[in-house]
Design a protein that fits this description.
The chain is built from eleven helices and no strands. With about 350 residues, the chain is mainly alpha-helical. Among the domains are: about 80 residues, no CATH class; about 55 residues; about 40 residues, no CATH class.
Length: about 350
C-alpha cells in the first residue's frame, strides 16, 4: 500500500509539473534534482496553495511562479550539464568549453544522450562503451574548438608573408595567445564600447602572426645556402620570385604528406631552390654593381675575380650595410667607397 501511494504521488507530481519545459537545456526533467532544491520546492508549494485557494484570482501570481520555476529548472539543467561534462577537456585547443556550441551540435548531443542512457542502465557493465563515447565526445569538442578558432581568426591575414596561417604555431606563442584571450573577453563584455581596443589588438595580432611567419620561413629555409654568391639570403627577393615560391610551396606539401616517402622529390626541390637562390644572388650583385665601370681597362666586369678579392668584398659589404642603415646620412662614405 505504501509503495502504491508513492507511485500515485509520483504521478501527481508529474501531472502538476506538466507546465514545465520537459527538456530544459536538453536535459530530461526527470533527471533534475527538483525535489532536493529548496528554491524550487518552496515555489512549488506556494503554487499549489494558490491553486487550492482560488486559481482564477491568483492567476497572475501562479503564472509568475511557473515562469520562475521554469527558470530554476533551466539553472539546474545547466549545473547538471556542467557536472556531466566534467570528464571533458575544459579548454580544448585552448578554447573555454562554455564557448563551444555543444548543445547545437547534433553529433555531440547524440553521443551525450547515449552516454546518459548507458550510465542510467548499468555504468559497470557499460564501462567500455561509456569510455569510448567519452573519448569521441572529447574529440568532437576539439573539432568544434578548432572550427571556432578558425572563425574567430577570420580577421587575420590568412597568408602572412605567404605562409598559410594554419602552419603557424599561434597556439604555442604566449604573446599571441594572451592577445587572443584579451580580445575574446572584450568581445564578450561589450564589442561596441571596446571597439577601439579590439581593433588595436587585431592589428597587433596580425603583426605577431607576420613575425611568426617570418621566423617560420627562416626555419624552413635553413637548408639553403645562407650566403649564395656571398649575398645574405635575407637580401634576395625570394618571396617575389614565382619560380622559387612555387618550389617552396611544393616542398611544403610534400613534407606535410610524407617526408620519408617523398625524400627524393624533396631533395631535388631543395637543390633547385638553392640553384634559383644563386641565380637571384647573381642578378642582385649585377644590379648592385651597376654603378661600376662595366669595362674597366676594356675588360668586361664579369671576367674579373671580384668575389675572390678580399679588399673588394670588404668594401662591397660595407657599402651594403651603409645603404641598409641610412643611405642619406651615409652619402659621403658611400661616395668614397664608390671611388675607391
Amino acid at each position: 500500500m505504501n509503495a502504491r501511494a508513492q507511485e500515485l504521488a509520483r504521478e501527481k507530481k508529474l501531472a502538476d509539473r506538466a507546465f514545465l519545459d520537459q527538456k530544459p537545456e536538453g536535459v530530461p526533467l526527470r533527471e533534475l534534482p527538483l525535489d532536493d532544491d529548496s528554491d524550487f520546492v518552496a515555489m512549488e508549494q506556494e503554487r499549489r496553495q494558490l491553486l487550492e485557494k482560488d486559481p482564477r484570482r491568483n492567476a497572475r501570481e501562479i503564472a509568475a511562479l511557473e515562469e520562475s520555476m521554469n527558470a530554476r529548472a533551466q539553472e539546474l539543467a545547466r549545473e547538471k550539464k556542467l557536472a556531466d561534462r566534467a570528464f571533458l577537456d575544459q579548454k580544448p585547443e585552448g578554447v573555454p568549453l562554455r564557448e563551444l556550441p555543444l548543445d547545437d551540435d547534433s553529433d555531440f548531443v547524440a553521443m551525450e544522450q547515449e552516454r546518459r542512457q548507458l550510465l542510467e542502465k548499468d555504468p559497470r557493465r557499460n564501462a567500455r562503451e561509456i569510455a569510448a563515447l567519452e573519448e569521441s565526445m572529447n574529440a568532437r569538442a576539439q573539432e568544434l574548438a578548432r572550427e571556432k578558432k578558425l572563425a574567430d581568426r577570420a580577421f587575420l591575414d590568412q597568408k602572412p608573408e605567404g605562409v598559410p596561417l594554419r602552419e603557424l604555431p599561434l597556439d604555442d606563442d604566449s604573446d599571441f595567445v594572451a592577445m587572443e584571450q584579451e580580445r575574446r573577453q572584450l568581445l564578450e563584455k561589450d564589442p561596441r564600447r571596446n571597439a577601439k581596443e579590439i581593433a588595436a589588438l587585431e592589428e597587433s595580432m596580425n603583426a605577431r602572426a607576420q613575425e611568426l611567419a617570418r621566423e617560420k620561413k627562416l626555419a624552413d629555409r635553413a637548408f639553403l645556402d645562407q650566403k649564395p654568391e656571398g649575398v645574405p639570403l635575407r637580401e634576395l627577393p625570394l618571396d617575389d620570385d614565382s619560380d622559387f615560391v612555387a618550389m617552396e610551396q611544393e616542398r611544403r606539401q610534400l613534407l606535410e604528406k610524407d617526408p620519408r616517402r617523398n625524400a627524393k622529390e624533396i631533395a631535388a626541390l631543395e637543390e633547385s631552390m638553392n640553384a634559383r637562390a644563386q641565380e637571384l644572388a647573381r642578378e642582385k650583385k649585377l644590379a648592385d654593381r651597376a654603378f661600376l665601370d662595366q669595362k674597366p681597362e676594356g675588360v668586361p666586369l664579369r671576367e674579373l675575380p671580384l668575389d675572390d678579392d678580399s679588399d673588394f668584398v670588404a668594401m662591397e659589404q660595407e657599402r651594403r650595410q651603409l645603404l641598409e642603415k641610412d643611405p642619406r646620412r651615409n652619402a659621403r662614405r658611400l661616395l668614397r667607397l664608390r671611388r675607391a
